[in-house]
Design brief:
Elements: E1 2-14, E2 19-21, E3 26-27, E4 31-48, E5 54-57, E6 60-62, H1 65-73, E7 79-86, H2 97-111, H3 118-128, H4 132-135, E8 140-143, E9 148-152, E10 160-165, H5 175-185, H6 189-208, H7 212-231, H8 242-256, E11 261-264, E12 271-275, H9 280-288, E13 295-299, E14 306-307
The protein binds (3R)-3-hydroxy-3-methyl-5-(phosphonooxy)pentanoic acid (PMV).
(3R)-3-hydroxy-3-methyl-5-(phosphonooxy)pentanoic acid (PMV) binds next to helix 5.
């Protein structure tokens, strides 16, 4: 009747930005991500005879409708009391939906006593938010159709991801609306999707070879192309702040001085720098000095969603 699960948010190196089927939450192209240890969400689901569903995130009441869609898809008819806690700043707009819905899928299935395969749990999480499908298997995950799978474990490669928080507050256009409008109005969208289909096999090859300059440069290009697509939407989607561009420039300057670090950016202003553990102090120190950067979070690879005893 009651269960608690933990999951980590993920950062995509080949991004998902466009659905081929909105109702079923299926992506136009496959994506590749890594789960990050410090972006952790704990979710408790209690099923019972409550008068209505309720959902609190960090003690604030939220709309439970997306969570209900996930529960309905799992065949859970009972009302749910859902309590979710993020161990990272949600207010800063860091991707919390991936870890939140991954933890919800795992906790809800357990609370209802349902035996689900990892693929089924990933497919359920997808109905809450697409990228949540990748937080269920965790590690290096590829999401292509109904569910995501782990392609390399978190221990495959010891990397660091330094997140430079570049603005306070939630983003103005959420990813669901943003990708829909980009798909419908950007003249570059077809080219973006074609590029993702080329990027994924190349990224997997570089990941297998642990080629940081190769994979870092690919991740930077992929992120900038996603933003180019979003910028070309009507109305334009500009997710960046001045600090975002300053971080991109700072990482370029670092690379020319011999420190290997590459950026990626989700649908928001924050910059995530990918580097080797030995370079993380230098990268973090440099990004901290960028005007407008309010916080820095250093993350390492993490595993999949798990049920707490
Ligand atoms: O799953 P959503 O709706 O949060 O969309 C995720 C979109 C990006 O974060 C920009 C890219 C990705 O693949 O995670």
């Amino acid at each position: 009747m009651k269960a608690t699960a933990v999951a980590h948010a993920n950062i995509a190196l080949v991004k998902y930005w466009g659905k081929r089927d909105e109702a079923r939450m299926l992506p136009e192209a496959a994506s590749l991500s890594l789960a990050l240890d410090r972006l952790r969400t704990t979710t408790t689901v209690e099923l019972g005879d409550f008068s209505a569903d309720s959902f609190t995130l960090d003690s604030r009441a939220e709309d439970p409708s997306r969570a209900r869609a996930l529960l309905d898809a799992a065949g859970i008819r009972q009302r749910a009391r859902i309590e979710s806690r993020n161990e990272f700043p949600t207010a800063a707009g860091l991707a919390s939906s991936a870890s939140g819905f991954a933890a919800l899928a795992v906790a809800a299935a357990a609370a209802a006593g349902l035996r689900k395969t990892p693929e089924e749990l990933s497919a359920l999480a997808r109905l809450g938010s697409g990228s949540a499908a990748r937080s269920v298997p965790g590690g290096w995950a590829v999401w292509e159709n109904e569910s995501a799978r782990q392609v390399f474990s978190p221990t495959h490669w010891d990397l660091r991801f330094c997140i430079a928080v570049c603005a306070d507050g939630e983003k103005q256009v959420g990813s669901r609306d943003g990708m829909r409008s980009t798909r419908e109005t950007s003249p570059y969208h077809g080219a973006w999707i074609a590029q993702c289909r080329r990027d994924l096999p190349a990224a997997l090859h570089l990941l297998a070879a642990r080629d940081l300059p190769g994979l870092g440069a690919l991740a930077e290009r992929n992120a900038l192309r996603m933003h180019a697509d979003a910028l070309a939407a009507d109305p334009p989607l500009l997710y960046w702040q001045p600090a975002t561009i300053a971080c991109l420039q700072a990482l370029r300057a670092l690379r020319s001085s011999g420190v290997q670090a590459w950026p990626t950016i989700d649908a928001g202003p924050h910059v995530v720098a990918i580097c080797a553990p030995a370079d993380a102090d230098a990268v973090e120190g440099r990004l901290r000095s960028v005007p407008g950067v309010t916080e820095l979070l250093r993350c390492a690879p993490a595993g999949g969603a798990t049920l707490l005893p």
